[in-house]
Design a protein that fits this description.
7-stranded mixed beta sheet, 4-stranded antiparallel beta sheet, mainly beta, 127 residues, 0% helix
Length: 127
């Protein structure tokens, strides 16, 4: 069974850092494009970044220079490193696997193109 499990969220002060994990099972993560999305209360789910199977990454303008993604293939896990966090980063963060069609590429990385999702992990940035 395909599963994605996020962890690492929590409460952090503005300017702080967090590292989120996305552990995959039931498939080899290395061969799929993986996206990170976030959703704040009352707002639409938005893309944060997307990493293709060859390692190329696209970032939302709001997180460029602050967030980065990397893969630890031996653990079938992808990490989202978040630095210089701001209150507006507060949201539930989800990792997602690209659907089988075009699975190697991010494309426009809209949520509808990602067929498998984790349960999400809450990130709260507040003093």
């Amino acid at each position: 069974q395909v599963q994605l499990v996020e962890s690492g969220g929590g409460l952090v002060q503005p300017g702080g850092s967090l590292r989120l994990s996305c552990a995959a099972s039931g498939f080899t993560l290395e061969y799929y494009a993986i996206g990170w999305f976030r959703q704040a209360p009352g707002k639409e789910r938005e893309g944060v970044l997307c990493s293709t199977s060859d390692g190329s990454t696209s970032y939302a303008d709001s997180v460029k220079g602050r967030f980065t993604i990397y893969r630890y293939n031996a653990k079938n896990t992808v990490y989202l490193q978040m630095n210089s966090l701001k209150p507006e980063d507060t949201a539930v963060y989800y990792c997602a696997r690209k659907s089988a069609r075009g699975r190697n590429f991010c494309g426009s990385w809209t949520p509808i193109d990602f067929g498998s999702w984790g349960q999400g992990t809450q990130v709260t940035v507040s003093s």
